[in-house]
Amino acid sequence: MRKGLIILSAVAMLTGCKVGPNYKRPEVAAPPQFRGAEGQPAPESLADSKWFEVFRDETLQGLVKEALAANYDIRIAAQRVIEAEGQVTATRAALFPQIGLQGTASRTGTKTPVMSSAGGFLVASWELDLFGKIRRATEAARAEMLSTQENQKAVRQALISQVALAYFTLREYDAELEYVNESLVTRAASLKLVTARQEGGVSTKLDVDQAQTLVASAGVQKAKLEKGVEQTENLINFLLGKPPGPVTRGQALTAQYQPPAIPAGIPSALLDRRPDLRYAEQQLVAANARVGVAKAAFFPTITLTGSGGYQTIDLVNIVDRSSGSYGMGGALDLPIFDAGRRAGNYKSAKARKEQLVINYQKAINNAFRDVSDALVGYAKAKQARASQELLTTTLRSQSGLANLRYRGGVTSYLEVLDTERQRLSEEQNLALSRRDELSAMVQLYQALGGGWQE
Predict the structure, then answer these.
(1) Chain-centre distance of CA 2, in angstroms?
(2) Which of 435, 448, 427 is CA-nearest to residue 166?
(3) Extents of the domains making up the chain
(4) Alpha-carbon distance 376 to 392, whole Å?
(5) Which of 82, 183, 423, 428 has the fewest C-beta atoms under 10 angstroms from its C-beta?
(6) Structure pTM?
(7) Distance of CA 423 to CAs 93, 167, 325, Å?
(8) pLDDT tens digits, residue range 3-31?
(9) What is the CATH number of domain 20-97+131-299+344-447?
């Protein structure tokens, strides 16, 4: 009998099938080229570069490394991966025999006689996975673990982008503050000059008031920028898992590295590069396997059981009066009627799978849009920055000329007032346009699927 059960078990393991559909990636029509990409599509992509190859400011690199080590979301994502790995192990364990030890002891009677007994048994049970229910469940658990790993990569990718964007914003505030502080010095000197000219009877009280207005407005802008600086520093420290405090500065906006060209790569490669798309696909793989689990529930379940050990009826003389015993058997669970429970579960599993097919297709289409938006955003940001540099240079020249004309008595202080306001405003816009260009590069790098690589 024992030999027959061993043979039955071996046959079950070798010939057991897996019911339910095997996974096949849904067909998604990828465009031949990203809209906004220049030139012919090529396999090379900016996203193939490591994050420290894109962000070359050593101070920024240090901040990113700190964030990757201590950020709260990164640590939570790591624990979720460990949790998913444990779930795979627990689900897969059902494929193997389960062995346990049972012990019993009892003493019964009134006064005499008293009956004592004890026993110890090894108990084993094994559910034969004839129709692949456990293997499909393991497949689903493994896919969910992989999706968790992809989510961890997406968290890493998003964190690197967040730190870089916050750092560039901080350096943009610093640049604006430099412009405002320089303007404050110039405006204070101008106020001193206008006041002296009024005392000499050359200027009017209106000129003095206008000069004071320029100084006060610059002071207001300085206070707002300083608020932005401290709040951005607090954000960076939060991303690093640290309390609020100052942040070390590195290269200025104008010194930040930008690649001479940004290749987008082939659109179809995006499916295997972006963590969010791989996450969505692994969720679909898991749902597909769950369909197999639900379908396997319609088929019989066979469980083998066995036990063996020793039993005694006298605790005092346990060796002499003990005897061995064993038992073997099997159980068959054949579904006949369950009022539609299995059919309902199967229908639900298939609907869940179809939802995730649609979700996967939607995610892919959205990814193509992300890349196109980022490409055009980066191209237009570069154009805007170039135009802003020209505009700022022109206004600086106009502002200097207006001051010379006023000192020479050719024009009123109103001309100085207008050109000075425009000059500072456009200098601040120049800092913003430089930050926007860097931010657009970060967004394009992330949209292409870069940033998660170790």
Answers:
(1) 54
(2) 435
(3) 20-97+131-299+344-447
(4) 24
(5) 82
(6) 0.86
(7) 72, 26, 98
(8) 544 444 454 444 467 888 999 999 888 89
(9) 1.20.1600.10
